[in-house]
Design a protein that fits this description.
globular; alpha/beta; 5 strands; 121 residues; 6 helices; single chain
């Protein structure tokens, strides 16, 4: 996996500046209505299966779309991707945009599924 070492470095740096949340905590906060789950994976990944009630804003366009879809910068937004790397970068970016309550779901969609949490197509 040496070809991804630059990406891993970016993710490791981002993870120092953000807060991660477990899939179980993410599910609880989403269910209670205190957070919005945002899937930052690509459209084809989303189409294969995603978290019920999640919003889809891919990593490439989240900065363009988020202010329209979630105008409240105090809202708790929990981003997730496939394994936790892209969402860490997305959360770091949202923090720079002034979002105060963003989290990255540790382990991504893989961890969500491994925890036995619900998915939909």
């Amino acid at each position: 996996m040496a070809e991804h070492s630059g990406f891993k470095t970016l993710v490791a740096e981002a993870k120092k500046k953000i807060t991660e949340i477990s899939p179980t905590d993410a599910a609880t906060k989403s269910k209670s209505g205190e957070s919005i789950i945002v899937d930052v994976r690509e459209k084809d990944e989303w189409d294969e299966g995603h978290i019920p009630d999640a919003l889809h804003m891919s990593r490439g366009t989240i900065e363009l779309d988020v202010e329209e879809k979630v105008p409240d910068t105090n809202a708790m937004i929990i981003c997730h991707c496939g394994g936790g790397g892209r969402s860490a970068l997305a959360v770091e970016s949202l923090q720079k945009m002034g979002y105060k309550n963003v989290r990255s779901m540790a382990g991504g969609f893989k961890a969500w599924k491994a925890a036995g949490l619900p998915t939909t197509k």
